[in-house]
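By convention, the token line describes the chain's fold. To illustrate:
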Amino acid sequence: MDNLPPDFLSEVEKYCGKVLNRKDDLLIIIEAYRNNNKFSDFEKLSFTGKYVNGLLRVLKSSVNIPEVESVDHIKRDLSENMENIVSQLTEVTSNINEKDKNYIEDNYLKLSHISLQNLQQLAEDLDKIKKYLNHIKRDDSNKTS
């Protein structure tokens, strides 16, 4: 899976039946991982995004579920994993061109309301990507069985 097809993000959208929120940004991020020969790290990022997106869903629905007592635990876990995404983005973009690096920093790495919204949208997209990657892996393992 080290070499993604050029239409990878379009395939993700087709598979999920939804448009990616941050498609252009994902192109920058994927290219940065490709240039660093660390696609497995992109898979880790997509896993973290999927996990964060799940935590956000639980947190939103916890308002309506009185049985959810560990909201503080969920918030802590969410905060830690959002920081994990930020550190992964910081690491992978450390060697890219200044224009793209500044763009990622301005849109994801600053402590602002806008950056948090962008991170949430990115996590949603990474969730879709992780589901698609899992789908591809299942298909590949079925072909070899």
